[in-house]
């Protein structure tokens, strides 16, 4: 797909939503993957998988709080039957190697998941600039891949469609597998790389602090 195809799928802006306390570190170091933050803090990323509670990290010139992974842990009740060629730990590991972004229509649901955590910050990023900068490391997905509550959708590495594929490949992937009847829409965008400060500034539009109000 090209940039116009991508924007037709996700909109003109993508959101990264994080606790407000993480904002200074992100503006200083860039938007880093959880595994990258763990390594900077001298921690083994494997030790932080399937976090029941938020984890505070600190190291030289860095502090960050990683969100819990309770929505994924909920999948333990399904014995991982929704995962292809993964167990919960290996799925959690690949999640921690990604930066996650949300189309605006999906952002409220993720904001809502932080409502009991205090103020949060929304980084609004230009979708076309992100596409051009991270074309070779960007995937789209039709589900929240870190959520396994209620009746979790089937997933495996195949759930991620690289943006180098066509829009129609993405829209029809689950239908061709017999998992849904209609065509998919993008729920989640992820980048298999850290977003350096320069790239974050180049792609940023508007960022606002929010105290949850719903």
Overview of this protein structure:
Helix content is 32%, strand content 21%. It is built from 9 helices and 9 strands. The longest helix has 10 residues, at 104-113. The chain is globular.
Structural class given helices, strands, pairing?
alpha+beta
N-to-C SSE series? Answer: HEHHEEHHEHEHEEHEHE
Q: What is the CA–CA distance across the termini?
A: 37 Å
Number of helices: 9
Count of DSSP strands:
9
- Write out the strand line-up for the largest beta sheet, numbering strands in chain order: 7-6-8-4-1-5-9
Compute the gyration radius: what is it?
A: 17 Å
**On the 0-100 scale, what is the average pLDDT?**
91
> What would the principal axes of the Cα set say about the shape?
globular
Helix content: 25-40%
Strand content: 15-25%
Biggest sheet layout: 7 strands, antiparallel
Q: Which residues form runs of ≥5 with pLDDT under 50?
A: 210-214
SSE blueprint:
Elements: H1 3-10, E1 13-19, H2 23-29, H3 34-40, E2 55-59, E3 62-66, H4 70-73, H5 88-95, E4 99-103, H6 104-113, E5 120-126, H7 127-133, E6 138-141, E7 161-162, H8 167-176, E8 188-191, H9 197-203, E9 204-210
Antiparallel strand pairs: 1-4, 1-5, 2-3, 4-8, 5-9, 6-7, 6-8
Helix pairs in contact: 1-7
